[in-house]
């Protein structure tokens, strides 16, 4: 019987150490779970930020490319306002139409120039004329273009009143 008491007392001595170990293990598990959740959240944020940056870089490169082509179209359109050989002018009109079609396929739209909007137009001249309405665009000096909701180039206009 003495041996049983000794075995029980030894088991009782080990029992608190098992409880302490269990508590420590639970604490370590909680810390590890917390670290895992934080790393998972950081990865998700990184992934979203990377996608957003990639889309932004693509859009900016797209806009820069189109911006470099616009002066060529402008110059060809200016030539169309001059007097010249009929076949030559017809050829230029076809080039302009083809360029406009290519821009439309790329999602680049010409900015409408009916009434002045400072978010889309750059007013370089102003006239006072009662025959025009308030903020009405009288003349377009240079066409503006937009890609999605991003302005590639503001329309350069003359505004009335």
Radius of gyration: 36 Å
Average the pLDDT over all residues and give the rounded result: 88
The number of helical elements comes to: 2
Strand/helix succession = HHEEEEEE
Ranges where pLDDT stays below 50 over 5 or more residues in a row are none
How much helical structure, as a percent, in the residues? 55-70%
N-to-C terminal Cα separation, in Å?
Answer: 113 Å
- Largest sheet data: 3 strands, antiparallel
**For the largest beta sheet, what order do the strands appear in spatially?**
1-4-5
From the helix content, strand content and strand pairing, which structural class follows? alpha+beta
Strand content: 15-25%
List how many beta strands DSSP finds: 6
Task: Please state the overall shape, judged from the principal axes of the Cα atoms.
Answer: elongated
């Amino acid at each position: 019987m003495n041996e049983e008491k000794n075995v029980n007392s030894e088991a009782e001595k080990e029992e608190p150490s098992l409880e302490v170990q269990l508590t420590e293990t639970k604490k370590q598990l909680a810390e590890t779970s917390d670290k895992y959740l934080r790393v998972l959240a950081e990865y998700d944020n990184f992934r979203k930020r990377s996608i957003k940056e990639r889309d932004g870089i693509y859009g900016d490169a797209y806009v820069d490319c189109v911006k470099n082509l616009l002066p060529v179209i402008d110059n060809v359109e200016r030539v169309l306002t001059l007097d010249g050989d009929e076949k030559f002018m017809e050829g230029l009109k076809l080039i302009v139409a083809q360029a406009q079609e290519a821009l439309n396929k790329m999602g680049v739209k010409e900015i409408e120039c009916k009434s002045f909007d400072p978010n889309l137009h750059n007013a370089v001249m102003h006239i006072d004329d009662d025959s025009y309405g308030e903020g009405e665009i009288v003349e377009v000096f240079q066409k503006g273009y937009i890609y999605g909701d991003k302005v590639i180039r503001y329309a350069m206009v003359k505004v009335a009143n």
